[in-house]
């Protein structure tokens, strides 16, 4: 699950804090005494305040933990589905483990990036986000980076290429994100949500084409692409402003925003692979040198050089999706 950064703003006129928070990917600004109108004059950003987009005391509730009774109060609000911010003079002694079991909308009040990293990773699940209380500009930036890199991870498997078949002209989707990717990174796409290839970003250049490290040439319009929080979409549905997940070869994920999605007619290849435990993975990708899968070592391998026996990275799960949400049902996809 992607995490959220909330920054406490002591004064709505503190332009430096507001601007830095925005540049650090803030989800919302917390103003305990109000002042949302002044904030809105500085930037388009959500606020948590008595006069905010989210009402403090209704949508978000701050609970200061001093004793067991306070913990029980926080647990009660979590069970009601409220967004609960837990606060104490030393937050690390809070039994966050207990509160995490009571609901998913738990936020920790933290003072620096180190505390934020602990909060969002505790018991692997972590809190939904953090409220950062600091006047240090660099600490806001560091915490923003911690949150950005805290995207969900997946367990990638090695699959063996079984067959590559040219299938002629199809409509394919090229996703240009508003982020730069590095070698070993790409998006998960596949004919089925139960089996997806890690299609490498266009980070490599050659004598004919310059690198475009913001791009994933994702595949045919019918294929699934993995989104945050374990959701999927058909590639044909992807549009500007959407969020997709970018993963590296270790399975570590982060959110990227779509800047543009292009649908064009191109010659395509049906690529089929199989994992060691017998899971089948298939996808239809453009027949071009710049389209690459990812090896277990994190290296890109072009689909035009691909041959049976080659090893590539894939993600597998049980089949079954309804409007992009995973469901338990009996389903066979061929």
Describe the structure.
It comes from Desulfurobacterium indicum. It is an enzyme of class 1 (oxidoreductase). Keywords: Amino-acid biosynthesis, Aromatic amino acid biosynthesis, NAD, Oxidoreductase. InterPro entries: DHQS, DHQS/DOIS_N, DHQS_C. Residues 9-146 form the 3-dehydroquinate synthase N-terminal domain. It is a single chain. This protein is α/β, with parallel strands linked by helices and 334 residues long. It folds into two domains: 4-148, Alpha-Beta Barrel (TIM Barrel); 157-326, Endonuclease - Pi-scei, Chain A, domain 1, CATH 2.170.16. Helices cover 16% and strands 39% of the residues. The chain contains six helices and 22 strands. It has helices at 15-23, 36-42, 68-79, 96-100, 113-121, 137-148, and strands at residues 4-8, 28-30, 47-49, 54-55, 60-64, 83-87, 106-110, 129-132, 157-177, 185-192, 195-200, 215-220, 224-226, 232-234, 243-248, 253-275, 280-286, 292-294, 300-302, 311-316, 321-322, 325-326. The strands form four sheets. It has an eight-stranded parallel sheet. It has a six-stranded antiparallel barrel with strand order 9-16-15-10-11-20. The radius of gyration is 22 Å and the shape is elongated. The mean pLDDT is 91.
